[in-house]
Amino acid sequence: MSLTTPLNAAHRELGARMVDFAGWDMPVQYSGGLAEHHAVRTAAGLFDVSHMGEIGFTGPGALETVNRLISNDLNRAADGQAVYAGLLTPEGTFVDDVVAYRFSPERILVCVNASNREKDFAWMREHARGVTPVDESDDFAQLALQGPRAEGILQQLTAAPLAQLPAFRFIEAEVEGVRCIVSRTGYTGEDGFELYLPPQHAEAIWRRLLEVGAPEGLIPCGLGARDTLRLEARFALYGNDIDDAHTALEAGLGWTVKFDKPAFIGREALAEQKAAGLTRKLIGFELTGTGIPRHGYPVLKDGERVGEVTSGTMGPTVKKPIGLAYVPTALSTEGSTFDVEIRGRAVPAVVVKTPFYKRA
Prior knowledge:
With 360 residues, the protein is of the alpha+beta class. It has 3 domains: 8-50 and 140-232, Gyrase A, domain 2, CATH 3.30.1360; 53-123, Alpha-Beta Plaits; 279-352, Aminomethyltransferase beta-barrel domains (Elongation Factor Tu (Ef-tu), domain 3). The protein has 8 helices and 19 strands. The strands form 4 sheets. It has a 6-stranded mixed beta sheet with strand order 10-11-12-9-3-13, with helices on both faces.
């Protein structure tokens, strides 16, 4: 039986099409993936992401403990700042990709992917030195309000000065009288916020946001639009683009790896790989022939399989068939060409600069 978020009944009331996602009963769409995608790009969309996991580290040494577990450097972050990072194996591959929130050196909250909640918690518990992690996932619901009108909509429900909150910063503030973590983060390529709040208040806040946001074009959105939005912005999806078989450097996430900080898991392997040079890279491409690339489709060069598509779609905003794929380094430069095999057909493709879409 699937797990459910506190908003399950509200999704069904709104006529959402529900699917199983990582063991959770989640809305894949309401009005339709294209309409929801365009709403986020032009106005605003509201997502239920309460299936995500939250793991807390509290007490003296919390900062040092988390910093050893992740590739990015929380020492460089200020209190009230979040960082995107890899939770890596000793081989430099991914246990998961996470966002770590620094409240203070003695309080860190790590947001993990829904499909990895139990695995990540076990990994952190096994490898933590100093502070024991606590799985706080059941203490939070999470809403993502995304799009160019997100700030104006959320501002109607809070006295917090949202205009003063830069990207990847967060505050604790009251929204409709409910104490929330309000974070200027998201997974869509647009401006927006993620709200962490007590599960018992999730439905009331969800309904109020939809109510005040409706005149601004806000609509509820499902996992389908979330996927096309994140791919246009070239955000990696665990299990597709990043996994325990590819390193952070191969995935193009070297910017999240801070070699100059104290030891972290995966550091030695990544340093060796960096010195030796990469043999494969995750690149963005667009098809120059007809078709839509999908996860798992073979990448061919001169008829030989040399890689595979990790994510692909018809980009609703860029209006092109786009995708990500691991290819040999020699094929990774912008303008390089190869074929994607689609139902037995070799469809030509070209490596392009990413992100495919960047907001003005």
